[in-house]
Every structure is written in C-alpha cells, then in structure tokens.
Amino acid sequence: MKALIVDDEPMARGVLRTFLQQDPEITLVDECENGSHAVGKIATSDYDFLFLDVQMPDMDGFRVLHESNPSRLPLVIFVTAHEEHAMRAFSFDAIDYLLKPFDDRRFAKTLKRAKQRLRERQLAVRSRELVDLLSQAMDPGNKAQETLVVQSGSRTVRLAASQIRWIEAQDKHVVIHTDAETIRARSSISSVEQMLAPHAFLRVHRSCLVALSRIKFLDKTEGGVPFVVMDDDSRVTVSRSRLAAIRSRLQDHS
C-alpha cells in the first residue's frame, strides 16, 4: 500500500510519516509541501491513500482534488487543525477528517478504516474483471479481445486494442505504450497476450508484445541486433529466434 502526504508544515508531515512507517503494509510514503506539487504527483504516480492538509499557501486541499483527474485519485483522508471544513471535506467522499493534534490510536483507527475501504474497492474491481473473463469464455467471438482491462495502482483501466502500440514486461508488471500515455499495470506479458487478439499482436521478444499494424519496418543495428521501428519511431528489440516468424507475419500483413 502506498501513501502520499500533502502538508506545508514539515513537522506535520513528519508525524504522519512516522505513523505510516510503523505499519508493515505501507510500502511507500511520499511527501509534498504544496498543492501544485501534489497535483503533479497524483497525475504521474499511483497511490492508495492521500493524507491531505486543507489550508496551504498556494493551493488548498479542495483545489488539489478539483485539479486532479478523478480516476487517479487515491482514497482521501483530510488532516487539518480547522474543524470548520469537515462538512465540505466529506462531500468529497473522504475516508476521515483527522484534526490536529491526534495521537497514534486515533490515527490507527483512521488507517484501519481506509484499508477496509481499499479492500472493498479492490474486490469490486476483481469482480468486474471476473465478469469480463467469463463473458469472453462464454462468447469467444465477442468484442472482448478488442479491449484490454488492467489494474494500474488503485484504478481499473480499459484500453481499446487499437490504442496500443507495444507492451513490455518489467519485473511483475507490464508497461503499456498507447497513443495517449504510458500505463504501468500489475500483470504478466503472457496474461496480457492472452487477452488480445492473436492476429493483431506479435511477440517480438519474450518480454515485448507489439501491435502488428503499428510496425513501420524491420531493421538491425550495426552490430546486427534486429529491431522493429514503430509508428511513433520508437524502437523495440527483436529476438533472433523469432526473426523468421516476424518476417513472415510482416509479409502476410503487408
């Protein structure tokens, strides 16, 4: 579980960090000292929990939520010394409203509630994914192969296969390069390959899958290492053992 602390007071951030680091389920704690920085972090990183101060000099906590993409927002816990904002805070579906100063028991109660909400959200996501998989199994000819459903942090992402240029494996994740963005999702390259139409995607390397229609040409380096050039001019290395099969698929596709 990953958390982001947003507060302009270093001491307040330190207290929250100390409490969070005592929990073995919290694997990452990041900090921001202002709202503008927070909006950027939320847009580019995946967090499960957002501990958000209400009053900050450049941008208050409510403005941070307004400026952020709703689909990327973590679960929100407001942390402030001003109780008069509580009603408005809960209109943002906040998990809790922590009034400073608070002790470890009060914080533990809040974190327990947030974890429970996170598990409920994850269960709902998995249920929807199971329904999608069952639909594919019962109707192999449906359009499911034209859509890829992945879990990226706390959000579920549905991508049209036509948006995808190429996919690479990284540790226990895949990085999906699309027309609009790059998405890091928890999955294996083999699992993703099974969800996509085999006639449209090509395994060029054990850790890379490319959209056949997005390949411009096949080439090799001065050292003889083969690669494909995609329609955005990115290069993807090709396995020598797959080279003949790739040439054949490209000829069939042309």
Description:
The chain has 254 residues and is α/β, with parallel strands linked by helices. It contains 7 helices and 15 strands. It has 2 domains: 2-121, Response regulator (Rossmann fold, 3-Layer(aba) Sandwich); 141-253, Beta Barrel (OB fold (Dihydrolipoamide Acetyltransferase, E2P)). The mean pLDDT is 84.
CATH architecture of the largest domain: 3-Layer(aba) Sandwich
Gyration radius from CA atoms, angstroms: 22 Å
Q: End-to-end span in angstroms?
A: 46 Å
Mean pLDDT: 84
Instruction: Summarize the helix and strand pattern as letters.
Output: EHEHEHEHEHEEEEEHEEEEEH
C-alpha geometry:
elongated
Low-pLDDT windows of residues: none
Number of domains: 2
Q: Helix segment count?
A: 7
Number of strands: 15
The name of the CATH superfamily of the largest domain reads Response regulator
Give helix % range.
Answer: 25-40%
User: What share of the residues does DSSP label as strand, in percent?
Assistant: 25-35%
- CATH top level assignment of the largest domain: Alpha Beta
In short:
The chain has about 250 residues and is of the alpha/beta class. It folds into 2 domains: about 1-120, Response regulator (Rossmann fold); about 140-254, Beta Barrel (OB fold (Dihydrolipoamide Acetyltransferase, E2P)), CATH 2.40.50. It has helices at about 10-20, 35-45, 60-65, 85-90, 105-140, 190-195, 245-254, and strands at about 1-5, 30, 50-55, 75-80, 95-100, 145-150, 155-160, 165-170, 175-180, 180-185, 200-205, 210, 215-220, 225-230, 235.
Which structural traits does this protein have?
single chain, 254 residues, Rossmann fold, OB fold (Dihydrolipoamide Acetyltransferase, E2P), 2 domains, 5-stranded parallel sheet, 5-stranded antiparallel sheet
